[in-house]
Amino acid sequence: METKLTRIAQIAKQRPKEVFTSLYHLLNENLLTQCHRELKGNKAAGIDHITKEEYEQNLAGNIANLVNRLKNHSYKPQPVRRTYIPKGNGKEVRPLGIPSYEDKIVQMGLNKILQAIYETEFMEFSYGFRPNRSCHDALRELNRIIHTGKINYIVDADIRKFFDTVDHEWMIKFLKLRIADPNINRLITKFMKSGCMEEGQLIPTDVGTPQGSIVSPTLGNIYLHYVLDLWFVKVVKKRCKGQAEIVRYADDSVFCFQYKEDAEWFYKELIQRLEKFKLKVAEEKTKIIIFGKYAEERCKAAGLNKPETFDFLGFTHYCGRSVNGKFRLMRKTSKKKFKAKVQEFKQWIKASRNLKISEIFRATSSKLIGHYQYYGITDNMRMLSKFLYNIQKLLYKWLNRRSQRKSFSLDKFNLYLKINPLPKPRIYASMHYVGASSVK
């Protein structure tokens, strides 16, 4: 099966205008069994309450039955089970869609087919939810563009509720440019319109990609490939008088320009371009700022105190200086993300404070390491240390609420930390551009 998918990827790369007419047969026993093996077994169950362990008890029979229903077109995706999880502030909640287990298997198989076709077509500046690409890679590319290019202005753009507003008709039109297999397109339509179940009530989904779906990120990338990426390369870059660049991670994008008039023209055109495909810019989150090597001088000339900052992928980007006094793009955890992560831990420790202290510290260590692995990038050590400090404060506070009597005095708590230390902050990912000056 891997050989077949590799062959499809080769054809897609060698013949960019190739339209695939026969793909549905790839959703066979071999591929779907492989997908079952790859799915994690500790995830929440959908509306059918079937887990991976239960499905595996009669795996051969279940997969054979699933393939048979796919072949005779009687397979129908179940609505996703909608639940709500708290946001980082502890006050608001966000919806989470949980597909049934069998639907996850089919979605993963479908996703493998789509990736085989589109991975060779997607642009190099697209990083979100793609194999062997990460948020850190996107940050490094943005670093390279600003350090080596002639960038003076940033358009920090945000698409309002992108995954909830993807238009189904346009989605299928885009897919048909490479996929002429009606069965594949029909299956994707079924997933997009499968609806969601909330408190026993079926809620139809006439727009948007499937909530919580494995295939949803790839569909989103396909949609933005045609709406945004190709348009930027074929129209925007050719229209601009100076340098114009883009770095995109899913629906989060940063646009870089040499000239102000190009940035302003682009922003107006972006609004119209997105509206054509039933999308909208979140204007309150979108801005044009002076940024880059000469931002300080330009700001002074414009009567501004200092260059503005922008947020991308959880980091605030700002203009800084190396130890040699040269310009350098710097980053730190954004205030919004920092506050959300602290609040998220607060909600967890509040609910888990009655566990054994050893279990609490073990889980806390795991959470800290996960935080460091993402936010542990060049220039962000201070924010990592601040995060650890806040976590220790919350531990002390909530461990002292395990009973009416205080469990810890501050001295005892510090002694316990000394004997059972939490992981110290460290930098996991370097953002240094090779040509940039080193820093302490």
From TrEMBL:
Domain named Reverse transcriptase: residues? 66-317
Record keyword Cytoplasm present: no
Q: Which UniProt keywords apply?
A: Nucleotidyltransferase, RNA-directed DNA polymerase, Transferase
Q: Which InterPro entries match?
A: DNA/RNA_pol_sf, Group_II_RT_mat, GrpII_Intron_Splice-Mob/Def, Mat_intron_G2, RT_dom
GO MF entries: RNA-directed DNA polymerase activity
Keyword presence, Transmembrane helix: no
Matching NCBIfam families, A to Z? group_II_RT_mat
Official protein name in the record: Group II intron reverse transcriptase/maturase
**Source organism of this protein record:** Clostridium thermosuccinogenes
